[in-house]
Structures are given as structure tokens and as C-alpha cells.
Amino acid sequence: MEMNLPPKVTERAFARLAEINATTGDDKALRVAVEGGGCSGFQYDIKLDEPASDDIVLEGGGQKVIVDAVSLPFLSNAVIDFTNELIGARFVVENPNATSSCGCGTSFSM
């Protein structure tokens, strides 16, 4: 059985999360989850949240990114990054497990 390695989080993503928390005055974690739906079968759900007891917690720069146990296999070896492009600034997931994705970048299939 293949080992599920947790996703990696870039310094840029941790830095942006720190900026968001500084602006809001909160100390929230960034939850990255995978759920059914989207145009390709699965989609990412990325939001600010509180860690739950069964979450995998990835820490960097004093910030936390959390992944629930169900989403973890879908995110094995993925990279969670923050990008600032013409279409907008957003957290993105570079996922080597995805066999295809759609143009919106939030939906994928395996």
C-alpha cells in the first residue's frame, strides 16, 4: 500500500494566510478539503476554519493549514500555494494525483 504523504504548503501560502489573519484579527487555519462535485468530479473547498481533532495540521511561519482525514489521500504529495494572477489572487492546489482538471482550477478528477 502506498503511503499518503501530506501536501506541502509553500512559504508564499503561509505568508498570505498570515496577512489575512493580521487583517481580520483572527488566528484561523486554512482548511483545504476535497469534496465531490465540480465539473470534473471532485472540487477543492478552501476556507478559513478552526482545526478539528482528526485534522492533519501543517505549520509554517506561525500559521496552520489543515486537512481532514478523508481529504488527505486526495491531496497526497500535492502543493498548496498562493498565486496572484490577472484573474485574481487565490490559494491553489497543484495536485499530482489529478488526472484532469477544468479551466476554473478548482475541480479535478482522479
Question: Can you walk me through this structure?
Answer:
With 110 residues, the protein is mainly beta. The chain has a single domain (8-109), classed as Sandwich (Hypothetical Protein Aq_1857, Chain: A), CATH 2.60.300. Helices cover 13% and strands 43% of the residues. It contains 1 helix and 9 strands, in the order βαββββββββ. It has one helix spanning 11-24, and strands at residues 8-9, 29-36, 42-49, 56-60, 63-67, 79-85, 88-94, 100-101, 107-109. The strands form 2 sheets. A 6-stranded mixed beta sheet has the order 4-5-2-3-9-8, covered by helices on one side. It has a 3-stranded mixed beta sheet with strand order 1-6-7. β8 (100-101) and β9 form a beta hairpin. The longest helix has 14 residues, at 11-24.
Give a brief description:
The protein has 110 residues and is mainly beta. 13% of the residues lie in helices and 43% in strands.
CATH class: Mainly Beta
CATH superfamily, called what? HesB-like domain
Number of extended strands: 9
Total helical elements: 1
| CATH topology-level name | Hypothetical Protein Aq_1857, Chain: A
What general outline do the C-alpha atoms trace? globular
How many separate domains?
A: 1
The appropriate CATH architecture is: Sandwich
Instruction: Enumerate the spans where pLDDT stays under 50 for 5 or more consecutive residues.
Output: none
What class do helices, strands and sheet pairing give? Answer: mainly beta
Please report which band the strand proportion falls in: under 5%, 5-15%, 15-25%, 25-35%, 35-45% or over 45%. 35-45%
Order of helices and strands: EHEEEEEEEE
**Biggest beta sheet attributes:** 6 strands, mixed
Tell me the span between the first and last alpha carbons: 18 Å
The strand order across the widest sheet is 4-5-2-3-9-8
> Assembly type of the shown chains?
single chain
